[in-house]
Amino acid sequence: MIIIKSLAQHFHHFFLAPARCELCDQYVKIIPSFCSDCQAQVKMLSQSHCQICAMPFESLEASPHTCSVCIQKAPAFSKVYAAFEWCDMIAKSIHKVKFGAQISLLEVLACHGHKDFLASLAEFRPDKIVPVPLHWRRSFKRGYNQASLLAEKLRQFSNLDIPIVESLSRDYQKAQAQKNREERLRDLRGVFKIEKPELFLNQRVLIVDDIMTTGATAHSLASEILSVGAKEVRVFVLARVGLKK
Ligand SMILES: [Zn+2]
Ligand SMILES: [Zn+2]
What we know:
- The protein is α/β, with parallel strands linked by helices.
- It folds into two domains: 41 residues, no CATH class; 198 residues, Rossmann fold (3-Layer(aba) Sandwich), CATH 3.40.50.
- It is built from nine helices and six strands.
- Strands 1-6-5-2 form a four-stranded parallel β-sheet. It has a two-stranded antiparallel sheet with strand order 3-4.
- Helix 9 links the parallel strand 5 and strand 6.
- The chain is globular.
- Bound molecules: zinc ion (ZN) (2 copies).
- The site of one zinc ion (ZN) has 8 residues, from helix 2.
- The site of one zinc ion has 8 residues, from helix 3.
């Protein structure tokens, strides 16, 4: 009797369990997906942002220009493409991907952001895609590197066979969240190591990551890739965090 009950529960779980929103548990028709309430909160990046680093401007009517941070010192990457603006819903989603092992959520986010990714491919025509590497200890603990999974999911939307290069490593660093841009830039100097530099000679390289906050990580990685002979480096992120805080 117990066996039958347990089998019935398994059957129910695998075949009849109602589909639920990846974020709030409301019922949905297909999985993985967001319910309409959560979907309504996804904010695509507005057109009013820095032409280089995609930092959102406060005024929505601002004409296209470069932000003061990029004017003072141009970053190593020449352009950032971002799909979403930073908001609670995106923050919650990315936290669940990184620390809650909710990888299916990454698929939903990639699905929502893939048009911007395809636009970045069409404009930049990269030869290589580089997901931002995690230190091996972090990816071992987490079981995956979310930037690599994201790059793979996004590439699936493209029908293009652009190679994803993962032969890069990263030194261990303490958590970066509390640090400002200058501190991050200092800490990140020489942190990335390229194992096969010949792969990047004269190449256009698109770095892929889940979010960009200060841009220091992408700058440091881009500098390293350019130092081994890449022609140009641009960046695609799901979400761009503003510096208003
Ligand atoms: Zn929901
Ligand atoms: Zn900028």
